[in-house]
Amino acid sequence: MASTPPHRNTLDAATSPTHSSGQFDESGSLASGSSSGQATSSTHADAISGLLSNDPKRTGFNPQTAWWINYFHILTGKVTPEGQFHYREWRYRVHEERDCKRCEEWRDYLFKYSPVVTFMRDKITALNGRLDESNVRCVRCPTRLTETGDVVRRGGGFSPFYGIEICANEIRNRGHLEDTIAHEMVHAYDLLRWKVDFVGEKSLKQAACTEIRASMLSGECRWTRNFFTYNNWNLTQQFQHCVRQRAVLSMRSRSRVKDDVHAVKLVNEVWDSCFRDTRPFDDIYR
Questions:
Q1: How far is CA 63 from the centre of its chain?
Q2: Distance, CA of 198 to CA of 21 (rounded, Å)
Q3: Is 184 a catalytic residue?
Q4: Segment Disordered: which positions (predicted)?
Q5: What pTM did the predictor assign?
Q6: What pLDDT score was predicted for residue 22?
Q7: Mean of all residue pLDDT scores within the chain
Q8: Of these four, 29, 73, 92, 168, which has the most CB atoms within 10 Å of its CB?
Q9: ∠177-179-184 over CA atoms, to 5°?
């Protein structure tokens, strides 16, 4: 990442319009997918359209039935993968208020007591930016269904116009939220400090670099999280593998990235320089 003088960018919280995933999610809105320049056939489009509406007879999930009965049906294999998708989305809608309130309480705590969040907030402020409780929003994020039927979930996103958006329905605990906020704050820092094109509209290499740095510095790839959350017992090169993998996944969601091979190539091209760059930290903090 080439160093350029800091520029003024406030990242102020504006009164935002009704949220659409396009503001924060480079990969598109619900069921939009990527067509690779080819029109989707009407038969395929009809099939996807059908997946977006639940048919209890087909899926085995009935929202009119008590949640614990549906859950028991899932455990006993009576609900199809499609039905499980609709069950999860239904539960997210039912608990939206609870999830957002809990997320906001954790967010406020982190901006007061989290060393990494307060450190990054101060560094962003020093670059004439602002990220605090007022422009870190907790919302429910609908799961995205691609044209191939793949389910895509996300934990949050960053917009230079609106700040940070946290997907309250995907946050497991306060530690997970801390990692997510720290990840997005690294993107904000890189944007302010180097004018990084983190969306990748002009430079996909810059986007790959900030994804490497965000995964490396946020703490999401520390050994304890991988061990207790993902049961990853690998002790050799585990951290590097995690950072690389998460950067590739983030790059894959960008519309200008053709496929997995392209995403891996972009990450590999900037890996050596960006993985060594721990600014604004002196070293990898978490």
A1: 28
A2: 16
A3: yes
A4: 1-42
A5: 0.76
A6: 31
A7: 80
A8: 168
A9: 95
Q: Kindly compute the dihedral angle of the four CA atoms of residues 146, 150, 155, 158, in this order, to the nearest 10 degrees.
A: -30
What percent helix, strand, coil does the chain show, rounded to 5? 50, 5, 40
How many angstroms separate the Cα of 187 from the Cα of each of 60, 155, 209?
A: 42, 15, 10
> Would you give the DSSP letter of residue 181?
H
Strands (E), the chain: 136-139, 144-145, 151-152, 156-159, 163-167
Per-residue pLDDT band for 232 (boundaries 50, 70, 90) equals low
Reference 92, options 55, 110, 67; nearest CA is 67
Phi then psi for 14, rounded to 5 degrees?
Answer: -100, 165
Structural tokens at position 169: 């329905």
Residue of 82, 165, 178, 184 marked active site: 184
Task: Calculate mean pLDDT across residues 59-70.
Answer: 92
